[in-house]
Amino acid sequence: MIALHEEHGEVVASWTRLGYRAESVVCFDRHLDLKPLTRAAAARLTRPGGDRTVEDENRKLPIREVEGSYGLDDFYAAGATLGLVSGLTWVRATREADSPAARRRLLAALSVIAAEPDVLDTTRFDGRGALYTRVCGLDLAIHTPDTFGATPQDPAARVDLDLDWFADVRTGQDHRPDELLGLLDRHGLRGNVDSMTYSVRSGFLPEARRDLAPLLAGELARGLRQRERDALPLPQATFTALRGAADPVPPERYESELAPLGPVGTALLGLLHLHTAGDADRAARCWHEAARAGCRSSWLAYGIGLSHYGRRAFTEAGEWFRRATGERTDTIEVKSAFLAALCTLRNGAYEEAHRALLDFARHYPLHADAARLAAGLGDRLGIERQPWLTRRIDAHEQLIGNGAAA
After folding, report:
1. Is residue 28 classed as helix, strand or coil in its secondary structure?
2. Which whole-number Å values give the CA distances from 295 to 65, 113, 278, in the listed order?
3. Which residues pair with 139 in a beta bridge?
4. Helices and strands in the chain, H and E counts
């Protein structure tokens, strides 16, 4: 039986039921669900308390501030922490050809994930443009369908399908079921499909494409089993508005569906003020109200920071980005830390900005822009460049510069 899920984070419980032990997983997905866990989340998973199970630790809403240790954006890190998964091969929903620009974009997407200081020593692109590295305790390979099809794969790998790989709410259908089946057959993986996820509830797959699950199961000659999940009601109208999938209405119209969520609902209301009305002041009031109740929303603080940054109010923007930084585990928190350093630079505090950029580059070795900015600013200030920074910049250039011609 193939385990069927509403949201992708639910797959961790299925891995446990299936007896996974340091498995290599091939995942077809539109998104790389590989954010690091917080220290507290990792501790809770490895030392569970009371009657809580691994399944109980799955967040019931796709929002980082909701109770739980992992969710739909960091469950692969949870799998590594629990010893269930050791390697991830991500097959992207793209037909992008290899080029220096494509490599730069892919590295930039990974650059906000915390990694070991020596990660660049083992990060490489192959001749077709597939990327290999190690983050979040996993050996990671990133492929397009073409590079996946052309590269030998582990015949024992398990296969995980997020159905949004086939059809996106914005772009329509990108890949066909027969294309997937052909790729699996090429590597003898058709019988290794363990799990599928709809991702409808979180807004990534159109509701009308739920038919993909029974269609694929039929082609694979397998049954489906979906376990009911004790999920909170999703504030559907709110998420539809935040995705820009509906004409905006006054944010107050959403209050009734957000009220049951407490301070998380207050933070979401702030996002609505920001995204539907461009009202950063109302959004800020919501953030402070939610924070007083225990929810310091990085998502909302980041959005407010971007609003101020866009109008070149760098002092205010920097304050909000620093509020959004947190532990620098969520990718929004990492982006906020980098943008806070840029605000310091824009305000003319060059030595302080250099220290911030240097610290950021040291902790995020895949982030090429931070390394280049730190080096360039230090050179202008007459600060001797540290050897590790030069090596870092050279490694980035070698990775990106060897791509196929754009």
Report:
1. strand
2. 7, 23, 22
3. 87, 134
4. 17, 11
CA gap 236, 239 in Å, rounded: 5
Range of weakest confidence among 270-274, 301-305, 320-324? 270-274
pLDDT of residue 229: 67
Tell me if residue 97 falls in helix, strand or coil: coil
Output the average pLDDT for the chain: 92
pTM comes to 0.92
- According to DSSP, the β-strands at 158-162 and 193-197 are parallel
255, two tokens: 């209050």
Weakest mean pLDDT among 51-65, 147-161, 215-229, 350-364: 51-65
pLDDT of residue 216: 97
User: Phi/psi of residue 366, each to 5°?
Assistant: -85, -5
Average confidence (pLDDT) over 120-146? 95
Q: Which residue has the tokens 């091969």?
A: 89
pLDDT of residue 405: 44
Provide the 8-state DSSP code for 89. E
DSSP letters, 17-48, are HTT--SEEEEEE-SS---PPPPHHHHHHHHS-
Kind of pairing between the strands at 2-5 and 193-197: parallel
Q: Phi first, then psi: what are they for 158, rounded to 5°?
A: -90, 155
d(CA 262, CA 253): 16
* Cβ neighbours for 289, distance < 8 A, ≥ 6 positions apart: 263, 266
Is the pLDDT score of 297 beyond 80? yes
Written as six digits, the tokens of 203 are: 């807004």
pLDDT at 320: 98
CA angle 135, 140, 141 (to 5 degrees): 150
**If we measure between CA atoms, which residue out of 399, 78, 20, 63 comes closest to residue 258?**
63
Q: Which of 298, 289, 359, 291 is CA-nearest to residue 326?
A: 298
